[in-house]
Design goal:
- The structure is a single chain.
- With 253 residues, the chain is an alpha+beta fold.
- It is 36% helix and 18% strand.
- The strands form 3 sheets. Strands 7-9-8-10-11 form a 5-stranded mixed beta sheet.
- The longest helix has 14 residues.
Length: 253
Amino acid sequence: MCATPSMRIAAMPKKLFIAALLIIACLPFATAEDAVPEAVRKVLAAIIPGQTPDAIRAAPTGGFYEVSYGTEMFYISQDGRYLLQGDLLDLKTQVNLTEKKRSEQRRELMQGVKKEDTIVFMPAGKPRHTVYVFTDIDCGYCRQMHKEIKRYNDLGIEIRYLAYPRTGIDTPSYYKAVSVWCAEDRKTAMTEAKAGRQPPERSCDNPVEAEFSLGAKLGVSGTPTLVFSDGSIVPGYLNPTQLAQYLETQLSN
């Protein structure tokens, strides 16, 4: 099974390279900018052979290049000697520049998600907010969240579920997600499965594996994980009141 992009590159060089290889094996190729110094290209070819970054760009601070594979990012000096892993903060503006870039990349990835490929629980009226939730049927906090689905909807929050069986592909949780998706009434099947009832085994064309892969690219490492319209994420459970407050204060138009 592919490692998720939320696996952080280890501090020691050997561990760094192994983790990077596992991460990148799960991610799509992209073309880097032609202006990147040859020294940077050589370092990447040496530590991550055979893979092309999604982007290489000049870092906001001088002397370094920002390298990204999906939402995984690190920095290499323009002479190829130094590698930095971690978030870059602008102390003047108090902005986390690395997380800002991650959010942009998540937003781009989420633009490819079709509503019809999610299991949607909608408010009665026009939604105030739409939240994508990576969920695992066997996850305790996911089940707690779903028990309160009506309350989320009553607060004007539309929930769009994406499958993220934490145990991976070809596991019982994966097949439960597939069986729910393939049910005639997906919403009812989801509700029953999250109440602890074993869904009848079903199979059909489904987006479960693709959504699991998308979650890995976004940096999902646990469930529930909430993804918002600006590309930001919140890992973990927020009750309806907490989620409504977050949406109003952080994402209100």
